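Figure S7 source data.
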Amino acid sequence: MSRATGALISLAALRHNLRRARALAPHARVMAMVKANAYGHGLAVVARALSEADAFGVASLDEALTIRHAGLAHPIVLLEGVFSAAELEEVARHGCELVVHDPGQLAMLEASHLDKAVGVWLKLDTGMHRLGFAPDEARAAWERLQGAAAVRGPVRLITHLARADEPGNAHTRGQLETFTSSTAGLRAERSIANSAALLAWPESHADWVRPGILLYGVSPFAGHCGRDHKLEPVMTMRTELIAVKTVTRGDTVGYGGNWRAEHNTRIGIAAIGYGDGYPRHAPNGTPVLVNGVRVPLIGRVSMDMIAVDLQTQAQARVGDAVVLWGAELPVEEIARAAGTIPYELLCGITQRVKFSVVEAGLETRAGTQALGSV
Ligand SMILES: Cc1ncc(COP(=O)(O)O)c(C=O)c1O
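Tokens for the predicted pyridoxal-5'-phosphate complex:
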């Protein structure tokens, strides 16, 4: 037996969440956001499971090529565009699409002589103030792109919302109005909505929605979890107890001794730590499932291990199942305890964690059938 630390990925949950996205925006097409290794879930496996999506959204050419090498011919949109003329040629060769967000990229396209024209999305900065053309530059940029020989029209329009996770927020309303007014009359498909907008801003659905976190069964809203939106968590992070012992009243556990036993206490050591991506800032009391029952984390998270209080789990033994997050313990709850967001936890899982894929169900004890490695 080797170290049990692993992530289980449910294909059925991925497909369910994609169906949910479609049901929320029945008139829009879905660009599934699979950047950052599909939010830490494994890009090739996730893209194959989401083959019903209309397109994929990625941050780099490498990510796009991983999808192509997985045998998928879908449109793939590079959300930051290209970084050089050489990359532009490769993007064109692999039939990928580009976001164009600044004058340099626009000029590069105009100057290029591609064998195969590329599909382009013109990005407008309507209030995120990260990437994109100013609203009053939209029309001219769109017309230049439409006229560029390297561009396969029609050029689409895209913007990104900064505060869609705050339902009713005035900033989002302003972004939507700016997008509508600055692109009025342009005959182009439009895309605005991330997961939060898909759930909370139906007026943002437009022609294409771009859900990310929602596809992984996780809520984009603070204080909520995926189940609140009829989503199914895709990942179960799990390991095993590798030691069980009793510490004496007054003993401390772990680095820095920040947890002290008030009485003789049975504790367990589980094989997971920040070297696997479990958050080092998870405080005493963060819930962990041992044999499906919640017990509190105690002491500092180490690189390879955590300790849990097993007072309520007298029967727990070495080898017993430990779940850090999954269907019965939302990753949103762990993120909140650790002062971060679920996106960061999911993207932060490290290379040594073994991934396996299950067709359905998230049972982490007997009954789960692993179909293969990611
Ligand atoms: C441009 C763009 N669209 C959509 C998304 C998806 O966001 P979410 O995961 O919140 O749905 C992202 C992710 O950050 C993004 O950068």
